[in-house]
């Protein structure tokens, strides 16, 4: 292996480490959701499990054996019936009498209410976990794809245009059941399983006579386990997504082979050690077989194989058809500079110019935000409820959302059915992005190529705001900004027509 090859392998491994760090940060956010849910339920559980006898009724083993005889291991009524019909031992008979005592009915009622609350709480945990992780995956997908192409161009010294990652490609990867279920289904399974475990544990607490403190410790332990499973899922899905988007970048660059690259340390699995250095065809890549992740917590990645034949093809691709010159990527060029030159162009990506896939529509952030009037959470919810009912995913105020919007120079953004907002938003920003969602939902101007589609939809959105200014009481400064943006897009349209490119 040459010194140059070692460098690029080390750089690729560093990329994966960065992806995993981002996954860890996302997992930390999700862990806070689980901790908050645990604390809430602990407070709701107060007084239910205050010690009411000197000794416990049954051991935990005996309690679990009793639950195993129930069809529904969370049913208090079924437990009562089982206790009533059982003649196994005196402790069970005593427990039945105590559960039937009038003084104990308040506890039973509160426990039943708490079981219902657990389901509602875990539904919220699921929604929050999905929103946080989806935002992370969207950002990771773009980064993995672009950085992989950047590495290819730096390795070869050739700069060439390429299609921006299509949101449909990201959605396809996220919805893929590469290991039996997609990530959303796994989140749902994990949260539902945790709800079941907690409800079962509550009955064990009831049967054994655990104290309030013991019950709280149980709850904390259960939610810590749920948080750990969420972290494992985020890490593994991040590995899967980043490697799949790198595969998409290989296809985009015309690369047909890749090399498996394992992180070699004491934690590396045997299967990854065995695959390290092996070469496979991109068209034959298969996660869990010859492409990471091979297992949960996998940290392996891949690197493109660039031979002489492949390099010649890239040179032809990078050559200007008019001048015959080849675009060069200087070795000194960093990722930010490359991104600005080859990915962004006046706020529009190469993909937009090429007309590929779902287009990101944005509300530009060139306004002085200190002068804006930000809306309340209630108003925000009211303005976005229609989009939610039609299947839109709303992401607001997360770290990933703020970073993405800052990067694209936007106050808000719409990509297909995903709407991204800053935490602090004004009414025109929310109205415009929900209107962009409606445009996507109706497939408005989908028959037009880029940038015509974007120009027409932006004009329509700005006009929508101006036409509904009185209805939504849009402030004057927001209307003035909207009018300026409308005029800018109208000029772009005129320039487009004059160029003879009208479709």
Name the average pLDDT. Answer: 83
Q: Enumerate how many helices there are, as a single number.
A: 18
Order of helices and strands: HHHHHHHHEHEEHHEEHEHEHEEHHHH
> Major β-sheet, in short?
4 strands, mixed
Strand content: 5-15%
**How many individual β-strands?**
9
The outline comes out as flat
> What structural category do the secondary elements indicate?
alpha+beta
Rg calc: 28 Å
Tell me which oligomeric state these chains represent. Answer: single chain
Which regions have little confidence, pLDDT < 50, spanning 5+ residues?
51-56, 345-358
In whole angstroms, how far apart are the ends? 53 Å
- Helix proportion: 55-70%
- Side by side, the strands of the main sheet go 6-8-9-7
What report would you give on this structure?
The chain has helices spanning 3-44, 60-67, 76-85, 90-100, 105-156, 167-175, 183-208, 212-253, 270-275, 308-318, 335-343, 350-354, 377-389, 399-408, 427-441, 452-467, 469-472, 476-498, and strands spanning 257-261, 279-281, 301-304, 344-345, 348-349, 360-364, 393-396, 410-415, 418-421. The strands form three sheets. It has a four-stranded mixed β-sheet with strand order 6-8-9-7, with helices on both faces. Strands 2-1-3 form a three-stranded antiparallel β-sheet. The protein is built from 18 helices and nine strands. β4 and β5 form a beta hairpin.
What is the topological layout?
Layout: H1 3-44, H2 60-67, H3 76-85, H4 90-100, H5 105-156, H6 167-175, H7 183-208, H8 212-253, E1 257-261, H9 270-275, E2 279-281, E3 301-304, H10 308-318, H11 335-343, E4 344-345, E5 348-349, H12 350-354, E6 360-364, H13 377-389, E7 393-396, H14 399-408, E8 410-415, E9 418-421, H15 427-441, H16 452-467, H17 469-472, H18 476-498
Parallel strand pairs: 7-9
Antiparallel strand pairs: 1-2, 1-3, 4-5, 6-8, 8-9
């Amino acid at each position: 292996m040459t010194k140059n090859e070692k460098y690029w392998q080390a750089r690729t491994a560093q990329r994966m480490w960065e992806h995993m760090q981002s996954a860890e940060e996302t997992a930390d956010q999700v862990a806070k959701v689980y901790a908050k849910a645990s604390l809430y339920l602990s407070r709701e559980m107060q007084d239910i499990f205050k010690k009411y006898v000197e000794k416990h009724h049954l051991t935990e083993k005996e309690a679990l054996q009793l639950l195993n005889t129930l069809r529904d291991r969370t049913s208090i009524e079924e437990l009562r019936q089982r206790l009533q019909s059982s003649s196994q031992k005196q402790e069970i008979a005593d427990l039945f009498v105590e559960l039937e005592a009038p003084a104990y009915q308040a506890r039973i009622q509160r426990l039943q209410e708490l079981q219902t609350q657990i389901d509602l709480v875990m539904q919220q945990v699921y929604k929050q976990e999905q929103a946080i992780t989806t935002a992370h995956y969207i950002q990771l997908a773009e980064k993995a794809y672009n950085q992989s192409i950047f590495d290819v161009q730096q390795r070869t010294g050739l700069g060439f245009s390429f299609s921006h990652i299509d949101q449909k490609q990201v959605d396809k990867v996220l919805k893929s059941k590469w290991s039996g279920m997609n990530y959303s289904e796994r989140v749902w399974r994990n949260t539902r399983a945790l709800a079941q475990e907690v409800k079962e544990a509550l009955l064990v607490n009831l049967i054994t006579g655990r104290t309030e403190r013991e019950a709280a410790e149980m709850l904390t332990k259960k939610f810590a386990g749920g948080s750990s499973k969420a972290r494992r899922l985020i890490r593994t899905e991040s590995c899967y997504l980043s490697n799949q988007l790198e595969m998409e970048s290989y296809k985009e660059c015309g690369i047909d082979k890749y090399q498996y690259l394992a992180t070699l340390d004491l934690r590396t699995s045997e299967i990854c050690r065995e695959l390290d250095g092996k070469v496979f065809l991109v068209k034959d890549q298969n996660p869990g077989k010859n492409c990471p992740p091979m297992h949960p917590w996998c940290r392996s990645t891949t690197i493109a194989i660039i031979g002489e034949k492949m390099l010649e093809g890239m040179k032809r691709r990078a050559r200007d058809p008019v001048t015959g010159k080849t675009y060069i990527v200087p070795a000194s060029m960093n990722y930010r500079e490359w991104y600005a030159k080859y990915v962004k162009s006046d706020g529009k990506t190469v993909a937009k110019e090429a007309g590929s896939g779902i287009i990101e529509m944005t509300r530009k952030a060139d306004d002085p935000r200190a002068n804006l009037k930000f809306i309340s959470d209630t108003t925000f919810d009211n303005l976005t409820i229609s989009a939610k009912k039609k299947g839109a995913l709303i992401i607001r105020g997360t770290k990933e959302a703020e970073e993405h919007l800052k990067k694209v120079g936007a106050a808000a953004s719409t990509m297909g059915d995903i709407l991204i907002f800053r935490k602090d938003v004004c009414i025109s920003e929310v109205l415009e992005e929900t209107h962009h969602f409606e445009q996507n939902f109706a497939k408005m101007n989908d028959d037009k190529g880029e940038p015509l589609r974007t120009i027409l939809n932006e004009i329509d959105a700005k006009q929508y705001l101006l036409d509904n200014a009185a209805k939504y009481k849009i402030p004057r400064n927001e209307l003035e900004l909207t009018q300026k943006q409308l005029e800018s897009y109208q000029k772009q349209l005129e320039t487009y027509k004059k160029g003879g490119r009208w479709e």
